[in-house]
Design a protein that fits this description.
Blueprint lengths: L7 H7 L1 H4 L8 E3 L23 E4 L18 H10 L5 E3 L14 H10 L2 E2 L10 H10 L11 E5 L2 H11 L2 E5 L11 H15 L14
Parallel strand pairs: 1-6, 2-3, 2-5, 3-4, 5-6
């Protein structure tokens, strides 16, 4: 097994699901990237107080083919609208490939994605879902984003045990892209299993956690 591709963060955090299985349930679900409501506040209809000031984007199978550094062509217009709604540092790409130190030590992939998308790619040592602190540190460095609490951030991605779980661990909102660029039958066994598990939880009456700053009780 290639240790560079092993997501130790996800493996460790999976044990948290034993105590809090709802951590993999999103606050909002859309079919594809093109179905994102922009601005994202409207995605969380039941949460009238949602105040999304910044967006964290997954890359692989979210807005790009896995291992591709370019935006999937049919998603170009939606990506453009997202950049306009969340300009500058208010839009951040957090990937478990580009920018992940275990796979992109030189930062070459991150640079290529930034050139292709015009969006900053976060460099992080711990893979999702464990890099929430790195994300908060990033936004704290740039007050122009207006982010002062994790519940002002929305995480958009196609994986429940990485993107969605990270958002819930942070106290942020999540938007799950149910149908990625790659057809479901061609995704990994883990991706298919987590979808089935989420469906089981919903049928049992579980609901997504309510986003809130850990400092506000």
């Amino acid at each position: 097994m290639d240790m560079n591709t092993l997501n130790i963060s996800a493996t460790v955090n999976i044990f948290r699901l034993l105590a809090r299985p709802k951590l993999i349930l999103p606050q909002a679900t859309v079919s594809t990237f093109n179905h994102l409501p922009i601005p994202l506040n409207s995605a969380f209809g039941k949460c009238k107080n949602a105040d999304i000031r910044a967006v964290v984007l997954d890359k692989d199978n979210c807005f790009a083919y896995p291992k591709s550094n370019d935006i999937y062509e049919p998603y170009n217009e939606t990506f453009k609208k997202l950049r306009e709604a969340y300009p500058g540092r208010r839009l951040l790409i957090v990937s478990n490939t580009a920018g992940a130190e275990s796979l992109d030590r030189s930062g070459k992939l991150a640079v290529e994605v930034e050139k292709s998308t015009g969006v900053t790619v976060l460099s992080h040592a711990s893979k999702k879902p464990g890099c929430g602190p790195d994300i908060m540190e990033y936004f704290s460095k740039y007050p122009e984003t207006g982010v002062t609490r994790p519940d002002q951030i929305a995480v958009v991605g196609d994986r429940l045990t990485t993107d969605v779980m990270m958002a819930n661990l942070m106290g942020s909102y999540s938007v799950w892209i149910k149908d990625g660029v790659v057809p479901v039958e061609e995704t990994s066994v883990f991706a298919r299993l987590e979808q089935k598990f989420a469906g089981f939880l919903i049928r049992r009456g579980y609901k997504a956690p309510e986003p809130a700053s850990p400092f506000e009780k």
